[in-house]
What does this fold into?
Amino acid sequence: MLEGFRRLLGGKAPPTDSQTATQAALSSFDEWSRRAQVQIRSPRDSGGLIVEGKTDGLPWRIEWGASQRPYVPGQELRIRATLPLPPDLQANLQAIVLDRPLQEAIEKAMFEQFVEDVQTRIDTDTPAEMRWIVMHPRLARAELGELHERYAAAASLKPWLQQWLAGPLAPALLARRDEAGTPFVLTLNRGRLTLRTALEEASPGSVEPQLRLFETALREARSVRFDDDPG
It folds into this structure.
């Protein structure tokens, strides 16, 4: 299925020279890391970049390097943090917000794979967030409001998702620079919030806007007051 998805999106971008790209990224981040009081390093076993910091006392981690998802071509930027959610919510909550072209491409790819009768491979080969798009309740156009033109969103607990998007996160998503063909995905699974997008060259100028958006998503996720027990 994953090969079919890569074909659908036009294939992966040619890989960059990882050592050269890593050194350039490290150099460009030196001043920023001192100013922002974050830790920056390169992974021992591969090219790329790792930046670690905190937002309101909650640790986050930026990773830039080879893509870990078939829907992100070339180099990938990942930002992650673990939320202190109640145990029941942590176990049951799965949510995804993604750009609409990517949502449509994923749905098309998954449909084509079903037509080719490879259903037995879907659970093992497909990233979980790709399955959520067709598995979980999706916000309708009226529920998404202004986000509808650019984004799709789904969650195992739809009311939680609606609360998450009801505050500053929606304007932050609308303000995000929308580059054609650049996938963007924001997920929450087992308490871990993750932002993924394609980014061929890492620099403070390209990473900081994504981090600001992630921090907004992180704060809003912490502020949701949700009880999934109707009793």
In short: Residues 204-223 form the longest helix (20 residues). The radius of gyration is 18 Å. Confidence is low (pLDDT under 50) at residues 8-15. The chain has one domain: 2-223.
